[in-house]
Amino acid sequence: MDTKEILKKVRKIEIKTRRLSDHIFSGEYHSSFKGRGMTFSEVRQYQYGDDVRAIDWNVTARYNEPYVKVFEEERELTMMLLVDISGSEYFGTTQQFKRDTITEIAATLAFSAIQNNDKVGLLLFSDNVELFIPPKKGKSHVLRIIRELIDFQPKSTKTNISEALKFLSSVMKKKAIVFMLSDFMDEDYESTLKIAGKKHDLTGIRVYDKHDASIPNLGMVSMLDAETGKTMLVNTASKSVRNSYQAYYLKMVAYYEKSFSRSGAGTISSRIDESYVKKLLGYFKNKGAR
Fold first, then answer.
1. Pairing label, strands 220-224, 177-182
2. Strands 119-125 and 67-74, bridge-based pairing
3. Phi, psi angle pair for 165, to nearest 5°
4. What's the distance, CA 100 to chain centroid?
5. What's the rounded Cα separation, in Å, for the pair 132 and 147?
6. DSSP state of 212
7. Residue 224's CB: how many other CB atoms inside 10 A?
8. How far are the Cα atoms of 27, 38, 53, 59, 167 from residue 50, in angstroms, in the given order?
9. Are 268 and 283 in contact, with CB atoms under 8 Å apart?
10. Residue 53 carries which DSSP code?
């Protein structure tokens, strides 16, 4: 993809996702993720209904009328986007690949964060950490993140979720809001997920295609494994072959849901031909109500 085409695509995603974050997500995001605490702002004259425990007795004595301390939320937070760019994300049987949907969701979250004056960082991973962009504020920073999501070419096509979580724990010493976006076709990451979940406010966003779950009966077909690069002949007419694949897929989904639940982390599952807007909005509303 040449530079002109990349910039055109970045602009297209910016227009779509910024509109969503402007009108839908920024308020929900703010109420869902709390700041680090309350910090003193100012004193003002007591008004009917104010909590008497907030009275500043020193100022009250000086002016001979009641004044109260005003506190506001110490708001600045850090968001980290952990994005799976392995080979299986280049699959989709509708109008776009899983990676396209992941890019849109990540961009929407990033714009929601900067509208609340929070920092945003990016970690792209396969079976290794392919790219790490430290958290920063600002529109130009978010546009760089979108550009990398669109155009970055990974060195590996495999997946290792545990490696990404280990790297996160090593570089992010303070609590962050973490969104991990993947199809989660991987295992053996629950222990590292629990460690990350204790430190960070973690959410897994599983993006999948409607045909991920099963293989249609097409007879003997040549299939490419996007993660290993190997091509193999598969007898899709065999019911046992189809059932085995479906059982494997359901096992991966169950592992994802149980691992995140046991780690105290949230989960969202969004099919690429469905509205991720409704899924995100519902998740934010439920989180903000807790």
1. unpaired
2. unpaired
3. -70, -35
4. 14
5. 14
6. S
7. 11
8. 26, 17, 9, 16, 47
9. yes
10. G
The structure tokens 């308020």 sit at 27
Question: Of 107, 101, 103, which Cα lies nearest the Cα of 120?
Answer: 107
3-state SS, residue 45: strand
* Structure confidence by residue, pLDDT tens digits, 238-279: 888 888 888 999 999 999 999 999 999 999 999 998 889 889
Q: How far apart are CA 152 and CA 245, in angstroms?
A: 30
Tokens of 39: 């910090």
**Beta strand 266-271 with 231-235: parallel, antiparallel or unpaired?**
unpaired
Other beta carbons within 10 angstroms of residue 100's beta carbon come to 19
C-alpha 91/C-alpha 243 separation (Å) is 21
For CA atoms 151, 154, 157, 158, give the dihedral sign: negative
- Residue 114's pLDDT band, with cuts at 50, 70 and 90, is confident
Tokens read off for 56: 């500043």
Provide the residue type at 88 as one letter. Answer: S
Q: What pTM was computed for the model?
A: 0.79
State which H helix or E strand residue 231 sits in.
strand 231-235
User: How many Å apart are CA 99 and CA 263, to the nearest integer?
Assistant: 26
Quote the DSSP letter at residue 93: S
Mean pLDDT of 60-72: 84
Q: How far apart are CA 124 and CA 163, in angstroms?
A: 11
